[in-house]
Design brief:
The protein has about 110 residues and is mainly α. It has a domain at about 10-60. Helix content is about 60%, strand content about 0%.
């Protein structure tokens, strides 16, 4: 195998060195990880922790019916305004909620 020299290009010099090491032994000493890969791993772990907490909590029962998966909810491009949230969860100044709290006589 012939290795070409790339004078002055830092990344190519590293690639050449690593290729040479790989042909000589099984141990490669390059340990740099791209920043994007680290960010992706941190995001995945955060979502896993968030999902665990979401499943363990007793709160948000109605919201869980709409969004049982944190990851799937994050994948949806959805702006949840306070009004939409009130309607979805059945809270707020709406007749059914006020009826449930015995503030109004009828939910309609």
């Amino acid at each position: 195998m012939i290795l070409q020299k790339h004078a002055g290009i830092f990344g190519n010099k590293i690639a050449d060195r690593l290729a040479k090491e790989a042909t000589q032994n099984n141990h490669v000493t390059y340990r740099r990880i791209p920043k994007s890969a680290i960010k992706q791993d941190i995001r995945k772990e955060s979502i896993r922790k968030w999902q665990r907490q979401w499943e363990e909590t007793t709160k948000g029962v109605i919201t869980k019916e709409f969004f049982p998966s944190v990851e799937k909810r994050l994948a949806v491009n959805l702006y949840l305004s306070p009004k939409v949230t009130k309607i979805m969860t059945g809270h707020g100044n709406i007749r059914s909620y006020l009826h449930r709290l015995k503030i109004m006589g009828s939910p309609e």
